[in-house]
Amino acid sequence: MLLKTKNIAIVGLLFTLTWFSSCKKSEDDVINSATKDVRDSVYAISQSLYLWNTSLPTATLFKPTGYPTADSVMRKVRTYSPFVNGKYQDRWSFAIEKSVWDNYVSGNSSDVGMQYGFVSATDLRVKLVYSQSPAGLLGVKRGWQVLKINGVDATNANINQLNTELGKTSQTIVFVKPDGTQQTLTLTAGAYKADYVINPKVFSINGVNVGYFNFDSFLGDAINGKTAQKTLNVLDQTFADFKSKNVTELILDLRYNGGGYGLVANYLGNLIAPSAAIGKIFAKTEHNSVYTQYNNTDFFATATNGLKLSKIVIIVNKGTASASEELINALKPVMTVKLIGSTTHGKPVGYYAIPTMDYYAFPVAFRNVNSAGTGNFYEGFSVDKVQTDDFTKDLGDENEACLKSALEYYRTGALQSTTQSARISAEVEQLNTKITKERLKLTVYDFPKK
Q1: What single-letter DSSP state applies at residue 218?
Q2: Distance of CA 306 to the CA centre of its chain
Q3: Which of 110, 441, 119 is nearest to 257 (CA)?
């Protein structure tokens, strides 16, 4: 997801409907519609702000109240975007209840705190664990094999029943740990904060210190009204530690990062990019013809703890989206970028969060382009080395397949050809779409004040 603030990429969180009345008289209808039905309101917002707004029919023809929910209206809006290569370019416009969204952007969750991935049809593994979640506090780690969930064998044959059990508040899970021992834990869903920086490490390769961390989201809590300041502080701490340890090369793991605030993407870019990038374009936002006055340009800037790198390896997969891709796109013209894993999601557009009644509306409102004018990566970024996501080992384990390939690049200066065993099985990929809860894909900004 790409969300935008005035100088950030989280398309518009605190945007109010009073803005519409200052643009043109016909948009008074947007305010009026908000007093009637949220379905009418989210459609009226889309008619004005949607990147492909000229393709939308009148409300009379569209009939927003003929759809069951505000989100179903937005899902229909998607079908008025260009249809290219067998799919609509907009696969993301949505509406969400304010309470749900506010928890999401702050990293607040209430579950057991794990995600899963199949290695094969009969081998389910823990893919991700948040340290402060019920599972994390009991010591569960990525890579642990799952044998049973509430008595149900953890195999593809039982996928529907497994998903039912995973939706329950209490889950008794039989694990096999890396040393071969079994452990049975009963986990009860509870409130926790997600980790955004996971398992930072420093590796010594040929006398050079190589930093690594998994970055899970570009979202995060505000501090004293400053958007995502908590996340920015954690990034600063991570890079300050890398700097104190003389890190001169970096592996950034974005394999599950569906995006977030553009502000955070820009900030992370500043911590990474070489000195020569300072003052150059990070990203430009382009709106529809009604709102060209809100087109905006963000630049690379000096960062106190910046590593000033000349190259970077980024671990990616189809879960790498939006603000993550904006960062990749911004870095490509100013430094060497090597991608390892599998093709990214392909979301070069973002939104503003428009509050209306008890909802936020998120019509795709702008596209992002880099300093070279590149921006239509709807098919995602292809990788320099295909490598499967190795669920059998923890993030930050030097023997985990993606990280191992990245370290090998710094060791040899080359990316070795991909072996057949490292290629991603389409069958396993399909299995994981059934067990993995998809994240929102976000680039969000606050609406520019111009």
Answers
A1: B
A2: 23
A3: 441
| pLDDT of amino acid 87 | 96
Would you say 91 and 380 are in contact if contact means Cβ atoms under 8 Å apart? Answer: no
The rounded distance, in Å, linking the Cα atoms of 27 and 269 is 37
SS3 of residue 153 by DSSP: strand
In DSSP terms, 204 is beta-bridged to: 209
pTM higher than 0.85 for the full model?
Answer: yes
pLDDT at 105: 87
Position 242: which residue type?
F
Q: Which domains does the chain have, with CATH numbers?
A: 2-105 (no CATH), 108-191 (2.30.42.10), 195-349+366-423 (3.90.226.10)
- In tens, the pLDDT along 316-366 reads 999 999 999 999 999 999 999 999 999 999 999 999 999 999 999 999 999
Strand ranges for 229-326 from DSSP E? 247-253, 259-261, 281-286, 296-299, 311-316
Which residue positions in the chain have pLDDT lower than 70? 1-35, 418-426, 436-450
Q: Is 259 exposed, middle or buried (0-12, 13-18, 19+ CB in 10 A)?
A: buried
Closest listed residue to residue 196, CA positions, set 226, 235, 224: 235
Residue of 162, 168, 242 whose CA lies nearest to 202: 242
Quick one: pLDDT at residue 139? 98
Residues found in the chain: 450
Separation of alpha carbons 221 and 193, rounded Å: 10
Sheet holding 354-356, edge to edge: 94-97, 359-362, 354-356
Amino acid at site 14: L
Question: Within 13 Å of residue 132, how many CA atoms lie on the same side as its CB?
Answer: 12
Determine the pLDDT at residue 309.
98
Residue 261 CA to residue 133 CA, distance in Å, equals 23
Q: Which residue has the tokens 């402060």?
A: 132
**pLDDT at residue 15, rounded to an integer:** 31
| Residue 439 DSSP SS3 | coil
Distance between CA atoms of residues 250 and 171, nearest Å: 38
Each residue's pLDDT tens digit, 271-297: 999 999 999 999 999 999 999 999 999
Return the pLDDT at 317. 96
User: How much is the pLDDT for 29?
Assistant: 40
Picking from 288, 309, 291, 290, the residue whose alpha carbon sits closest to that of residue 300 is 309
How far apart, in whole angstroms, are the C-alpha atoms of residue 361 and residue 69? 12
Question: First-to-last CA distance in the chain?
Answer: 24
